């Protein structure tokens, strides 16, 4: 057996120091470093009272007596702080038995279990856990703050979006009122001719009545002439009313017919200013959206070209509207020969308040772009061509052709 070698190995790596005390609590035996652990000098501590070396046991005398009497097997004081870098468990065990009394002890053994490394590790773990807990608390607080900030930011963004939408609606309303005023002026101009015809027919009727030379057939013919002019005027008013009557839901409508209705309303104004209007392309292409808003976009683009002509008039002023389709997408191009858009604002021509006119508001093209993009999911582009500008409206396919 290697009992001695085993004991030597245990002793060489032991974590224990010990003191042995008698019934008077005098130290009678001790390990090599026991006094060092108690931070005392060995020479001064022989036959010293236990309480002087281990003051932590003061007040625990009864527990020690129980062990002397055999009434208790072990008594432990855990995690005793002995020096800045040492912690021990103090275990009190029975020592040598008395010869005359089997259950009582002559001596008691005080074991000092060195747990410094374990204590440091535990402290490190506790500190790390506390730091993590504090960090998690801080992260939780920051996340809560961030959540509140995000919620507040979302409210602000939503409020700003609502403000912008309201502003856009007001701008569109302002543009519509402006267009309405121009249309009323155009209608007034268009009514002059039928009113003149009606006035002429009525005067002829008066003269014939004076001469008493009226025949029934003549009266009917002249009344039919008046009714024809009245129907024309009534149709003009109906077209005007339909033009500004908003649609609540998107519908499928014919692009050629929609644009022709706009031209019918404004053609006399453009003819009066010597501007030729041409509608070309396919006649059966359909679009999906709000037809009246699309009509207002066409009217806005026509007015833009007309204003350009008024600044730079010439003998062959012409606007051509072409309706076509590419890869299922309806496309409307409006091309003029008014000299084009100045290059310095070409990229920003659709921005709010950008205009080339001295008294322009800079609303028309911006609202036209908004209507096409926001209300019809399309896009509008502009480029300069050989003699003028070309605006292109590209729309998504209507549902029936998807």
Description:
The chain has 402 residues and is α+β, with helices and mostly antiparallel strands. Among the domains are: 3-114, Beta-Lactamase, CATH 3.30.450; 250-401, Histidine kinase-like ATPase, C-terminal domain (Heat Shock Protein 90, 2-Layer Sandwich), CATH 3.30.565.10. The protein has helices at residues 3-12, 34-37, 42-45, 50-53, 61-68, 116-211, 216-243, 255-272, 291-311, 343-346, 364-376; strands at 16-21, 27-30, 75-83, 86-94, 108-114, 251-254, 276-281, 286-289, 318-326, 329-336, 379-384, 389-394. The strands form three sheets. The protein has a five-stranded antiparallel sheet. A five-stranded mixed sheet has the order 7-9-10-12-11, with helices on one face. Strands 6-8 form a two-stranded antiparallel ribbon. β1 and β2 (27-30) form a beta hairpin.
Looking at the structure, the CATH topology of the domain at 250-401 is Heat Shock Protein 90
H/E topology pattern: HEEHHHHEEEHHEHEEHEEHHEE
Q: Could you name the ranges where pLDDT drops below 50 across 5 or more consecutive residues?
A: none
Q: Please, how many helices?
A: 11
Tell me the β content. 15-25%
Going by CATH, what is the homologous superfamily of the domain at 250-401?
Histidine kinase-like ATPase, C-terminal domain
Radius of gyration: 53 Å
CATH architecture of the domain at 250-401: 2-Layer Sandwich
Give a short summary of the structure.
With 402 residues, this protein is of the alpha+beta class. It is 52% helix and 19% strand. The strands form three sheets. The chain has a five-stranded antiparallel beta sheet with strand order 2-1-5-4-3.
């Amino acid at each position: 057996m290697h009992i001695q070698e085993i004991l030597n190995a245990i002793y060489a790596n032991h974590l224990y120091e010990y003191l042995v005390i008698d019934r008077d609590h005098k130290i009678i035996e001790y390990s090599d470093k026991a006094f060092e652990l108690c931070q005392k000098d060995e020479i001064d501590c022989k036959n010293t009272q236990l309480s002087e070396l281990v003051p932590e046991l003061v007040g625990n005398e009864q527990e020690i007596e129980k062990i002397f009497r055999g009434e208790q097997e072990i008594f432990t004081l855990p995690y005793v702080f002995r020096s800045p870098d040492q912690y021990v468990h103090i275990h009190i065990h029975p020592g040598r038995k008395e010869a005359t009394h089997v259950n009582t002890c002559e001596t008691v053994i005080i074991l000092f279990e060195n747990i410094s490394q374990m204590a440091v590790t535990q402290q490190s773990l506790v500190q790390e856990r506390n730091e993590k807990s504090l960090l998690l608390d801080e992260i939780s607080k920051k996340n809560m703050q961030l959540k509140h900030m995000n919620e507040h930011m979302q409210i602000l963004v939503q409020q700003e979006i609502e403000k912008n939408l309201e502003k856009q609606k007001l701008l569109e309303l302002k543009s519509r009122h402006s267009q309405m005023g121009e249309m009323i002026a155009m209608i007034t101009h268009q009514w002059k001719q039928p009113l003149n015809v009606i006035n002429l027919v009525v005067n002829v009727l008066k003269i014939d009545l004076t001469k008493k030379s009226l025949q029934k057939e003549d009266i009917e013919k002249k009344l039919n002439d008046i009714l024809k002019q009245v129907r024309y005027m009534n149709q003009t008013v109906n077209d005007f009313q339909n033009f500004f009557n908003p649609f609540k839901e998107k519908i499928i409508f014919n692009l050629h017919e929609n644009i022709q209705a706009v031209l019918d309303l404004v053609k006399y104004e453009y003819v009066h200013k010597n501007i030729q209007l041409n509608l070309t392309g396919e006649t059966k292409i359909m679009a999906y959206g709000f037809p009246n808003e699309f009509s207002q976009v066409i009217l806005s683009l026509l007015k833009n070209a007309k204003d350009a002509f008024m600044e730079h008039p010439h003998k062959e002023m012409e606007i051509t509207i072409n309706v076509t389709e590419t890869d299922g997408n309806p496309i409307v191009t409006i091309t003029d020969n008014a000299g084009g858009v100045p290059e310095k604002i070409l990229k920003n021509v659709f921005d709010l308040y950008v205009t080339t006119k001295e008294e322009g508001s800079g609303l028309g093209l911006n609202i036209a772009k908004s209507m096409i993009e926001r209300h019809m999911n399309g896009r509008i582009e502009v480029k300069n061509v050989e003699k003028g500008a070309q605006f292109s409206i590209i729309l998504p396919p209507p549902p029936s052709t998807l």
